[in-house]
Amino acid sequence: MITAVRDNNEYGTDSIIRELEEIRKLTLLQAKTVLTADDAALMLGTSRQAVYNMTSLRTIPHYRQGGRVFFKKAELEKWMTSQRVSTIEEQDIEAASYIVRSRV
């Protein structure tokens, strides 16, 4: 934990300390391969409760061990990027290809 004298001066020391704590958490997260629910929430940018809701609905890949929930970082990254949305250009190309194929 970052410890410092906390005062409310014109430089926003409290805000700086909060930012440093967030940077520390994100730095530690980079080194992990197996994550806790709190880690997963940080990585996904959501709350721990939202992560638990996703596990109970089985919409997110996870593991249970001794009543605790764990996540593989690589699986979460894959899950996060599994619903790719095509660009307008890609859709136009696909539409043009479909028109050419349907005329034959």
Task: Provide a descriptive summary of the structure in words.
By secondary structure, the chain is mainly alpha-helical. Helix content is 58%, strand content 10%. The protein is built from 5 helices and 3 strands. The protein has a 3-stranded antiparallel beta sheet with strand order 1-3-2. Helix 2 packs across helix 3. The radius of gyration is 21 Å and the shape is extended.
Instruction: Characterize the biggest β-sheet.
Output: 3 strands, antiparallel
List the secondary-structure elements in sequence, H or E. HEHHEEHH
Give the percentage of residues in beta strands: 5-15%
Kindly state the number of beta strands.
Answer: 3
Secondary-structure-based class equals mainly alpha
Radius of gyration: 21 Å
Gross morphology is: extended
Write the CATH fold name of the largest domain.
Arc Repressor Mutant, subunit A
- Uncertain segments are 1-7
Question: How do the strands of the widest beta sheet line up side by side?
Answer: 1-3-2
* Average pLDDT number: 88
CATH class term of the largest domain: Mainly Alpha
CATH architecture of the largest domain: Orthogonal Bundle
Instruction: Summarize the amount of helix as a percent range.
Output: 55-70%
Number of domains: 2
First-residue to last-residue Cα separation: 67 Å
**Number of H- or I-type helical stretches:** 5
